[in-house]
């Protein structure tokens, strides 16, 4: 049997003790509950004739909104430049080598010289230009039209990121110095570094003095050679002929 503690105030206890008023005892836990009066009507939580409004949250789940793919934010799309960082770009310089031959420069820091051209002339094999007595780099690139395919053999030396810009600027200096015969080497180099070369690539370009010397050397090599000086007729010494031959020469009269 459950026992409960029943408490009353002292004033009510005195009133009940002296018979002034009856004492009403009640359960303390039951006091916290709500007991309606006799004349109070209790409204049902779900009457029969009531209309339940549609719940938009439930309708969203019923229609399958959560399963539909949401459009991606355009700001989160990856940039094309970042995806193309690993793509190697090639460029052919017709007079890019030291001897004025064709040179293939790659954006990853390697350069190639033309090794051979196939019989059908549809493909070209390029070989790494780093070839010396100490190192013969075996790396190659095969060209077919505008498509370049690196070979299977790797490079035997690290890449130089300055080489592509260096070779392109030097080839451009040689081309401009040939077409502008009346311009000085300083003017040609200044025009290339300020107008033709992007500003973000200036730190990769060769020094100004080096480009100036290359321009002057290339122009001097293209000048026609001056023929050797012919001896002056007045400076030639002829040995005199004998007197008999002078007098009996052709067209001369004999002197007795």
From TrEMBL:
Q: Does the keyword Zinc apply?
A: yes
Where do the FLYWCH-type domain residues begin and end?
Answer: 99-157
Q: Which domain of life is it from?
A: Eukaryota
One GO molecular function term of this record is:
zinc ion binding
Question: Which InterPro entries does the entry link to?
Answer: Znf_FLYWCH
Keywords linked to the UniProt accession: Metal-binding, Zinc, Zinc-finger
Protein name per UniProt:
FLYWCH-type domain-containing protein
């Amino acid at each position: 049997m459950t026992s409960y503690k029943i408490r009353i105030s002292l004033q009510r206890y005195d009133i009940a003790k002296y018979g002034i008023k009856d004492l009403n005892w009640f359960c303390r836990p039951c006091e916290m509950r709500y007991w309606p009066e006799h004349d109070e009507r209790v409204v049902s939580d779900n009457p029969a004739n009531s209309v339940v409004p549609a719940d938009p949250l439930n309708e969203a789940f019923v229609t399958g909104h959560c399963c539909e793919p949401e459009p991606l934010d355009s700001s989160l799309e990856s940039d094309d430049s970042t995806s193309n960082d690993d793509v190697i770009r090639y460029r052919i310089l017709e007079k890019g080598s030291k001897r004025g031959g064709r040179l293939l420069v790659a954006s990853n820091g390697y350069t190639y010289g033309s090794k051979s051209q196939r019989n059908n002339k549809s493909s070209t094999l390029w070989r790494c230009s780093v070839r010396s007595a100490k190192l013969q780099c075996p790396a190659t690139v095969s060209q077919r039209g505008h498509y370049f395919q690196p070979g299977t053999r790797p490079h035997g030396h690290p890449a130089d990121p300055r080489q592509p810009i260096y070779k392109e600027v030097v080839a451009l200096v040689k081309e401009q110095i040939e077409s502008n015969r009346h311009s000085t080497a300083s003017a040609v180099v200044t025009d290339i570094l300020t107008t033709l070369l992007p500003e973000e690539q200036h730190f990769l370009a060769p020094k100004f003095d080096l480009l100036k010397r290359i321009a002057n050397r290339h122009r001097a090599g293209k000048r026609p050679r001056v023929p050797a000086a012919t001896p002056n007729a007045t400076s030639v010494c002829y040995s005199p002929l004998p007197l008999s031959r002078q007098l009996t020469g052709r067209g001369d009269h004999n002197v007795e």
